[in-house]
Write a structure and sequence with these properties.
Layout lengths: L13 H20 L3 E2 L5 E3 L1 H7 L9 E3 L5 E4 L4 H12 L6 E10 L11 E10 L4 H17 L4 E7 H10 L4 H12 L3 H10 L4 H12 L5 H7 L8 H16 L4 E2 L10 E10 L9 E9 L10 E8 H7 L12 E5 L4 H15 L4 E3 L6 H10 L4 E5 L1 H6 L2 E5 L5 E4 L1 H10 L1
This protein binds histidyl-adenosine monophosphate (HAM).
Histidyl-adenosine monophosphate (HAM) binds next to strand 6, strand 10, strand 11 and helix 11.
């Protein structure tokens, strides 16, 4: 019986894994150079870690289950809440800001489609302990440099949920209703925003101001918001956003101001940003990165700890990362024991171990004939075969065969290493 993969999951074949490793290493290197340290959290958590902020409705979008001990668990749908839980439990005393990065799989029970999976990977970073414009700008610039290291061109949109939240708070709209409005804005459902606000008795003036805010885009949006009195000139959110934009200029990061970004997750309190791929290769799922400032630590039993972070959709990046930026494949060497008695095998294993210090090295594990081993070497596109027979052992040498030219010569293992290296 053929067993299919679970819906929304993927297998990664060696070529794809090579590409993903290269990407992962480049992004890791950038994060480390910016002073971030890697952490890892469990694949599953107590489900309440994710429902505390977002409510039970979020369970619909998660893989959640009871374990044999009756505990309510969930496969992580994202990594920010786990990272902050870990911070509260283990890292509270670390110097602030605490700067971490992570790479891990996440699970969301969504309708699978192109670039949207039920198991996907995120590469992300968090500055725990600051949501100041300096931290916001650093996080955005870090994301920007990660993309640069992959040669991916993209468009960055920056907003601030504080502007909308401030406006709703001033009109005495409650927290739950505000979260609801944010989610509708995030989905781009403008009619539903108006309908919902009408439903809770909001004044026309408030509704008009919100719709205006959501529509404001481009560098002049802030000036416009102030001039049209949509945002008060004493707004903290506005001042913060202005300072952030100035620091982004210092970093040389280009952006589009977009006050309509609301983000799907409930925990954002300030700056929010999204990065979209340009070129249409991802179809509708073109958001490759999302992030912003948030407060979660107090909710998980810690002190109030403003934080800022982002996460890349790694699979989406992998789909647009161009293979020509990949390293050339490394040279393969095959050690061939001729007539596999014990002595020949013993010597071959020793020689393979030596060669593995320098090159990807293969050795026969199927007790095959010389010609079958040579055919295998050709099939995997090996560059050299190192033949080991009784005569070679007697002379303390090996026979190095260049598989492209067919030329061969006896030499010591050390010479063999030098010869292959020189090649
Ligand atoms: P998010 O926008 O929900 O934010 O996810 C981050 C990225 O993960 C998205 O921009 C997208 O590229 C990718 N992604 C999301 N869902 C899927 C899916 N089903 N299949 C493939 N890729 C997907 C967060 O998760 C926040 N924790 C980011 C953050 C970190 N905010 C502050 N710190």
């Amino acid at each position: 019986m053929r067993i299919e993969r679970a819906r929304g999951t993927r297998d990664f074949l060696p070529e794809e894994m090579k590409k993903r490793r290269i990407m992962e290493e480049r992004m890791r290197e950038i994060a480390e150079r910016w002073g971030y340290e890697e952490i890892r959290t469990p694949t599953f958590e107590l489900a309440e870690l994710f429902t505390l902020k977002s409510g039970e409705a979020i369970l619909e979008e998660m893989y959640e289950f009871k374990d044999k001990g009756g505990r309510h668990l969930a496969l992580r749908p994202e990594l920010t809440a786990p990272v902050i839980r870990m911070y509260v439990n283990e890292l509270k005393m670390a110097p602030k800001p605490t700067k971490v990065y992570y790479f891990g799989n996440c699970f969301r029970y969504e309708e699978p489609q192109r670039a949207r999976y039920r198991e996907f990977w995120q590469f992300g970073a968090e500055i725990i302990g600051s949501d100041r414009p300096e931290a916001q700008a650093e996080i955005i610039a870090l994301a920007f440099y990660c993309l640069k290291s992959l040669g991916i061109k993209a468009e960055l949109h920056v907003g601030h949920v504080g502007l909308i939240r401030e406006r709703l708070r001033a009109a005495n709209v409650g927290n739950d209703e505000t979260n609801r409005v944010m989610r509708l804005i995030d989905k781009g459902e403008r009619e539903s925003v108006i309908e919902f606000l009408n439903g809770i008795g909001a004044k026309k003036e408030l509704i008009d101001a919100l719709i205006c805010l959501v529509d404001l885009k481009g560098r002049d949006a802030l000036k416009e918001a102030r001039e049209r009195n949509i945002v008060g000139s004493d707004s903290d959110a506005l001042k913060e956003l202005e300072m952030l934009l100035e620091i982004l200029d210092y970093y040389g990061v280009q952006f589009t101001l977009n006050l309509g970004i609301a983000r799907g997750l409930d925990y954002y309190t300030g700056m929010v940003f999204e990065i979209y791929e340009v070129g249409g290769r991802l179809g509708a799922q073109n958001q490759i990165c999302g992030g912003g400032s948030y407060q979660l630590a107090a909710l998980f039993g810690g002190d109030d700890t403003p934080s800022t972070g982002f996460a890349f959709g790694f699979d989406r990046l992998a789909e647009i990362f161009l293979p020509e930026t990949m390293h050339p494949e490394s040279m393969k060497v095959v050690v061939i024991p001729i007539r596999g008695d014990r002595d020949v095998m013993k010597e071959s294993v020793k020689i393979a171990s030596k060669l593995r210090e320098f090159f990807p090295t293969y050795i026969d594990v199927m007790s095959r004939s010389l010609s079958a081993q040579l055919s295998y070497a050709a099939a995997i596109h090996a560059s050299f075969a190192v033949l080991v027979g009784k005569n070679e052992i007697k002379e303390g040498k090996v026979t190095l065969r260049n598989l492209n030219t067919g030329e061969q010569e006896k030499m010591s293992v050390e010479e063999c290493v030098e010869r292959i290296k020189a090649f």
